[in-house]
Amino acid sequence: MTDDAASLLAAARSGSRRALARLLTAAENGVDLPDCPVPARRAHVVGLTGAPGVGKSTTTAALTRALRDAGRHVAILAIDPSSPFTGGALLGDRIRMSDHAADPGVYIRSMAARGRLGGLAAAVPAATRILDAVGFDVILVETVGVGQSEIDIASAADTTVVLLAPGMGDGIQATKAGLLEIADVLVVNKADRPGADAAVRDVRSALRLAAREPGAWRVPVLAVSAAAGTGVDALVTALEDHLQHATTSGALERRRVQRWRAEVEATVLGELRERAAPLVAASVGEGVQGGEAPHTVARAIVNRMLSQHDPPEG
């Protein structure tokens, strides 16, 4: 770790929000920060996902309040849609969590998705490592909310909470195409509205049809009204129960190893893409004019890159 990064981390651990913000900004901008040392006590990374309008921000705020009442230090990464003008986050989630802005035990950071699909920002893995190293107990990652394909959070979180709401379409349809598979906890939010009981029944019926290995975690379906504060304590208990089960069964360690591997692979591919860009640009004209197939040109570029790093013979 560079002296500057080390000093920023030390300052952030001492409570400097300015230093923490600088570390996270560097991560967002793709600055090559050396790995932050991970303390023995690892933060619980909780992802909250679901379609727009299910109340993710309200649930995140209510969950934060309950965790703070329990004495936990909470960091929130709120992934917002990117501005078409600046590329930055629109900050809608941060505005809705303004009640926690003055709490020294809570840190809120909005991050722009910057056009990335899957509901997350590319800097989320690095940001969670930084927040973990600073000493937060729980890191809540709230996704953009792009629908049924929003499953990237499952690879970034220890526990994934999928939120649904009554009156937003068939409950079973809402859990298809990935969301049912990634959920560790399912929440029917706005449970004080008509149709909530039916939504809970639909989701529980869908879960009974899903294959489940012996001893596997049994996904709870909770009725919550985050705005009214009802059912939030049960959600906190479900998160703690899942973390305990995942720890005991070894699933947590396997998930974190997979997360580490995925980040290494993404970093390698990003580095290769950056190094290959000039070669690709130089090959376009000749390849098109010569009628070569794209995969043939690509293979030639890869071979050229590999040959540049071959050890000398003898």
Automatic annotation (TrEMBL):
<comment type="similarity">
    <text>Belongs to the SIMIBI class G3E GTPase family. ArgK/MeaB subfamily.</text>
</comment>
<dbReference type="InterPro" id="IPR027417">
    <property type="entry name" value="P-loop_NTPase"/>
</dbReference>
<keyword id="KW-0547">Nucleotide-binding</keyword>
<dbReference type="Pfam" id="PF03308">
    <property type="entry name" value="MeaB"/>
</dbReference>
<dbReference type="InterPro" id="IPR052040">
    <property type="entry name" value="GTPase/Isobutyryl-CoA_mutase"/>
</dbReference>
<dbReference type="InterPro" id="IPR005129">
    <property type="entry name" value="GTPase_ArgK"/>
</dbReference>
<dbReference type="GO" id="GO:0005525">
    <property type="term" value="F:GTP binding"/>
</dbReference>
<keyword id="KW-0342">GTP-binding</keyword>
<keyword id="KW-0143">Chaperone</keyword>
<dbReference type="GO" id="GO:0003924">
    <property type="term" value="F:GTPase activity"/>
</dbReference>
<protein>
    <submittedName>
        <fullName>Uncharacterized protein</fullName>
    </submittedName>
</protein>
<keyword id="KW-0378">Hydrolase</keyword>
